[in-house]
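Example 9 (inverse folding). The structure is encoded as follows.
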């Protein structure tokens, strides 16, 4: 019967070439990877360097507050394609495990189309989610400010009428935003300068106009600086118009 021989990394140092010893020692000193927490079987010794790299990526991730241990997941590994398993504690000291592809050094995640995601992409994804959360909170704050402005301007309006007016404003804004996002799909590198619901301008009886500034690039990669103007009284009758911002800010004749 074949018996897997397991060794801790410090013991393997005596058997590794000097250049490998220097590399691993440097990793521990410079990157703060505790090699005593990493364990590999002899058949996977050649994957020590990528295992240290994987441990560094795991330890650097904000979710892994404390790296507990790292090992080769032998049930899912082959000598040609190792899978590393790392155990961590999060901010609440809850224990969790991550599987990392030993060749790509990507986090295995079956919910992803490719079954894995790089740590850089994972961090960027979190940043985008934080930005969305911040934008939603800013929009809610903007709505509260607008509600207060409505209450101040229309002190005699009862609460139900106020809520109805605010709900209609939000519905018109969402219809305008959806139409604008659909129109912007024909452009590249869209960057929204107006990220939350702006204060609408009342341009008629119940008719409001929202203005949104954004930049983009056309198919020839020329910079476009646009102002979108969306007018409507209900979500069903909005009209969207795009103009260059230079033209939009020029005073009317």
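The amino acid assigned to each position is listed next.
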């Amino acid at each position: 019967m074949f018996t897997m021989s397991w060794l801790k990394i410090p013991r393997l140092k005596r058997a590794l070439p000097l250049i490998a010893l220097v590399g691993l020692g440097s990793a521990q000193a410079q990157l703060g990877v505790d090699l005593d927490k990493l364990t590999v079987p002899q058949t996977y010794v050649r994957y020590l360097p990528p295992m240290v790299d994987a441990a560094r990526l795991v330890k650097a991730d904000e979710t892994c507050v404390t790296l507990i241990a790292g090992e080769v997941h032998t049930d899912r590994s082959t000598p040609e394609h190792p899978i590393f398993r790392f155990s961590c504690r999060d901010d609440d000291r809850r224990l969790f495990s991550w599987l990392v592809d030993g060749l790509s050094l990507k986090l295995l995640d079956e919910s992803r189309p490719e079954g894995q995601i790089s740590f850089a992409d994972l961090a960027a994804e979190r940043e985008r989610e934080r930005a969305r959360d911040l934008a939603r909170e800013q929009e809610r704050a903007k709505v509260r400010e607008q509600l207060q402005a409505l209450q101040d301007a229309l002190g005699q309006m009862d609460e139900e009428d106020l809520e109805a007016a605010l709900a209609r404003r939000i519905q018109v804004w969402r219809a305008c935003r959806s139409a604008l996002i659909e129109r912007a799909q024909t452009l590249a590198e869209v960057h929204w300068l107006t990220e939350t619901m702006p204060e609408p301008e009342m341009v008629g009886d119940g008719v409001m106009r929202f203005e949104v500034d954004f930049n983009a690039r056309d198919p020839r990669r020329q910079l476009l600086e646009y102002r979108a103007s969306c007018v409507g009284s209900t979500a069903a009758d909005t009209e969207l118009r795009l103009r260059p911002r230079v033209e939009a800010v020029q005073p009317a004749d």
